């Protein structure tokens, strides 16, 4: 019998079904299960592992908001790869004026040029601003945590159809049926949930096909070291045999449509490098493009989107995973509060309002990189100017702030300069950090000066109240922190309690 919303009583009724056990689906499941929601993940692939998720192809740069999110849930320390990994894509050849901190369109910026004093609310002992991870390890740590929290993960079951009503969503995987109050599509760039639920996916078509390949090269001396922009594209041999290429073919090639053969990769490399280099063996290869599209709405009734299902763009600058994990951190507590009837009016809609503009910024960041990488004289001229700007102190600081996500914030309507930003990781006198107090996923009203009324306000909204003194308070006296670590309100001196109650009421339901 097929599950419908009419015969739902015959089926297990989950709070949320998540389509896709990629990093975003898994992290969202952890957030929802932490808030005690019942979660089923349906995952198309039978097995979680693939060579493309393992090093070197599975290398993923994590930026500040992601690192903070993992830290605030006690997951950061479980990642072993970042503790030991040397970046295999870092070029070892050529002069190194100083340590590279990141890049924009392949143009590096360096640590010794970055003026971190411009980020007034970042404490020196806070988590790293960037880190290298491995996709396979990240997924396995998240899957372990999700299962420990009671999440059911069913692998080898692809979502194939869905119907929603005002009460719930019926989800089909072939002839199997499942029912939930909500469905979240975390099923990647070709999201079936997005297509079936009829989300509009608007954006721009690609300029190039990107290739990542592991090959044996018979005559590697024919290739130049490092990243090489040529009249027909770009090639980059990071280590012997690890190739990245960009072919400005309008994104015509996709590995899902045609196999990537040794002959194809060799022909391409010869054309782009203008050599007669010989590839003697092709071990593994994948393609990607700079197609940039974004769902115009992240919610349709009881169906939501997160991660690549909601937005796609080129992996240049490595931001897609970070963007998707940011979606999950933003959505998890809001959806949980909605399910548990603890949400104030409009809370769930703020997921789209906050995350859509951040996604749009990342799409534009990736488009801007492509614009100056094109193999034409106009792009080269612009590339040279950006190169010069990035080597100034203000330039490097700006690019680091954007690439590391240190400047990421939501427009929550002003007030204190911290509002809308990630809360600083204050250290208490006993050595505990604020991040360590956030493992339970609750909002916090932090009182650094023992204001009597703050505890009362916390009680009115069911917010956890913490008071104490911290080593470096950055001039702040009290802070209201959402479960995702974003500052909702802050005061440097005696609080304005009506402002505080207004802010609290935007994110937490007043207790009756
Ligand atoms: C070469 C390359 C390098 C990159 N480097 C970086 C980087 O350094 N930093 C960064 O932030 N990002 C990077 N990215 C982007 C990043 O990998 C993605 O943005 C990220 O994996 C998206 O996670 P996701 O969970 O949304 O989707 P995915 O990782 O695509 O996971 C989706 C899951 O859904 C499953 N699925 C698909 N269809 C269905 C269905 N119908 N039913 C059920 N399950 C389904 C899939 O099997 C998969 O497990 C890179 C991408 C590429 C290609």
Descriptors:
binds flavin-adenine dinucleotide, five-stranded antiparallel beta sheet, globular, 512 residues, Alpha-Beta Plaits, Glutaredoxin, alpha+beta, 12 helices, FAD/NAD(P)-binding domain, single chain, eight-stranded mixed beta sheet
Describe this structure in words.
The protein is α+β, with helices and mostly antiparallel strands. The chain is 29% helix and 24% strand. Helix 1 links the parallel strand 1 and strand 2. The two termini are 43 Å apart. About 2% of the residues have low confidence. Flavin-adenine dinucleotide (FAD) binds next to helix 1, strand 2, strand 3 and helix 7. Keywords: FAD, Flavoprotein. It comes from Chitinophaga agrisoli. Its cofactor is FAD.
Number of strands: 24
Bound molecules: flavin-adenine dinucleotide
Q: Spans of 5+ residues with little confidence (pLDDT < 50)?
A: 87-97
Molecular shape: globular
CATH architecture of the largest domain: 3-Layer(bba) Sandwich
Total individual domains? 3
Number of helices: 12
What do we call the CATH topology of the largest domain?
Answer: FAD/NAD(P)-binding domain
Q: Tell me the major beta sheet.
A: 8 strands, mixed
Strand content: 15-25%
Helix-and-strand structural type: alpha+beta
Q: What is the radius of gyration computed over CA atoms, rounded to a whole number of angstroms? A: 24 Å
Instruction: Say which CATH homologous superfamily of the largest domain is assigned.
Output: FAD/NAD(P)-binding domain
As a percent range, the share of helical residues equals 25-40%
Classified by CATH, the class of the largest domain is Alpha Beta
Mean pLDDT: 92
Could you tell me how far the N terminus lies from the C terminus, measured between alpha carbons in angstroms? 43 Å
Pfam families: FAD_binding_3, Rng_hyd_C
Protein name: FAD-dependent oxidoreductase
Cofactor: FAD
Keywords: FAD, Flavoprotein
């Amino acid at each position: 019998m097929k599950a419908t919303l009419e015969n739902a009583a015959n089926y297990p009724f989950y709070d949320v079904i998540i389509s896709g056990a990629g990093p975003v689906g898994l992290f969202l499941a952890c957030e929802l299960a932490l808030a005690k929601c019942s979660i089923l993940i349906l995952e198309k692939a039978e097995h979680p592992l693939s060579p493309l998720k393992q090093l070197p192809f599975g290398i993923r740069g994590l930026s500040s908001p992601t690192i903070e999110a993992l830290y605030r849930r006690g997951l950061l320390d479980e990642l072993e790869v970042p503790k030991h990994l040397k970046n295999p894509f870092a070029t070892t050849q050529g002069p190194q004026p100083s340590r590279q901190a990141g890049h924009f369109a392949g143009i590096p910026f360096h640590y010794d040029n970055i003026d971190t004093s411009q980020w007034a609310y970042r404490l020196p002992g806070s988590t790293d601003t960037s880190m290298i991870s491995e996709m396979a390890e990240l997924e396995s740590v998240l899957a372990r945590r999700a299962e420990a929290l009671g999440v059911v993960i069913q692998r080898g079951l692809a979502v194939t159809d869905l119907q929603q009503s005002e009460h719930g969503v019926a989800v089909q995987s072939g002839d199997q049926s499942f029912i939930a109050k909500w469905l979240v599509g975390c099923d990647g760039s070709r999201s079936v949930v997005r297509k079936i639920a009829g989300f509009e996916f608007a954006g721009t078509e690609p300029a190039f096909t990107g290739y990542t390949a592991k090959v044996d090269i018979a005559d590697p001396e024919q290739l130049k070291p490092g990243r090489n922009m040529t009249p027909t594209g770009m090639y980059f041999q990071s280590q012997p045999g690890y190739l990245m290429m960009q072919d400005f073919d309008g994104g015509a090639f996709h590995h899902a449509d045609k196999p990537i053969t040794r002959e194809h990769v060799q022909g391409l490399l010869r054309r782009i490098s203008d050599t007669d280099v010989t590839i003697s063996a092709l071990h593994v290869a994948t393609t990607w493009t700079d197609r940039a599209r974004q769902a115009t709405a992240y919610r349709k009734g009881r169906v939501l989107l997160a991660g690549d299902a909601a937005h796609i763009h080129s992996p240049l600058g490595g931001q897609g995973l970070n963007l998707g994990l940011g979606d999950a951190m933003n959505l998890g507590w809001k959806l949980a509060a909605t399910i548990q009837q603890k949400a104030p009016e409009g809370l769930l809609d703020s997921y789209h309002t906050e995350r859509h503009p951040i996604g749009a910024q990342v799409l534009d960041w990736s488009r801007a990189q492509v614009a100056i990488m094109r193999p034409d004289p106009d792009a080269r001229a612009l590339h040279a100017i950006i190169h010069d700007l990035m080597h100034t102190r203000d330039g490097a600081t700006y690019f680091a702030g954007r690439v590391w996500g240190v400047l990421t914030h939501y427009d929550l309507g002003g007030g204190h300069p911290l509002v809308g930003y990630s809360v600083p990781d204050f250290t208490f006198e006993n050595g505990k950090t604020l991040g360590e107090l956030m493992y339970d996923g609750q909002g916090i009203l932090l009182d650094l000066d023992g204001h009597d009324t703050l505890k009362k306000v916390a009680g009115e909204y069911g917010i956890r109240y913490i008071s104490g003194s911290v080593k470096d308070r950055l001039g702040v006296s009290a802070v209201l922190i959402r479960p995702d670590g974003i500052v909702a309100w802050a005061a440097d001196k005696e609080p304005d309690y009506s402002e505080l109650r207004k802010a609290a009421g935007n994110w937490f339901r007043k207790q009756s």
